[in-house]
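User: Hey, my collaborator sent me this sequence without any context and asked if I could get a structure. I don't really work with proteins. Can you help?
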Amino acid sequence: MGNFDQAIQDLAQRQAAPVAEAKKALAPIRAEAEKLLREFSEVAAKLRPGLLAAQAKLHRASAVLGCLPQPLQRHLEAAFGTGVLGGGILDGAVAGYQDLIRRIDGLTEWEVYQGIPIRLPGVLSGLRGNAGALKAVALAVEKDLENLTETLKAAALAPPPVLVVERPEPPGRVPVVSEFDLGAP
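Assistant: No problem. I've predicted the 3D structure and written it out in C-alpha cell form, which is a compact way to encode the shape of the chain:
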C-alpha cells in the first residue's frame, strides 16, 4: 500500500507544479483585478444613489408625459441592465472582476494545458474600462435629466390639448386608386 500512496503523492506534486507556476505568473493580474474591483466599487457606491434617483425621476416623468424619455431610459439600462438578470455595468463589472479572481484562484492543470492563463490578461484588459464607462453613463444621465426638466417645463406651459374632430369626406367622393394609377407619373 505504501507504493500506491507514494505514487499518488508524486503524481499530485507533478500536476501541481504547472498550476503553481501559472498562479505565480498570474499573481500581478489577480492583484490588479482586486485593485480595479475596489476602485470600481468606490465609484459605483458614489454614483449609484444618483442613478437610482434618476430612475425614480424617469418613472415619475413617464407617468405625467405618458411615455418614457428614451435617451434617459437607454442610459439607465446601460447602468442597471434590463430584466431579472441585470446585465448592466453596475452588476456586470463586479461579476467580471470576481470571476477573473475566482478563475485564477481555482486554476486547474487542464486549464493550464488548454492555455487559459494566457487569455486571462486579455480578460482583465476588457474589464479595465468599467469605472470610466460608469462615469460616462452617469454624466449622460445628468444631461438627460436636464433635457427632461426642460421638456417638463415646456409641457407645463403648453396650452391644454384641444379635441379636434376631422370632418369626413362626403359620401360619393371617395378617391379610388387602382394598380395602374400607382405607377403612372
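In plain terms: The chain has one domain: 2-156. You can pass these C-alpha cells on to your collaborator as they are.
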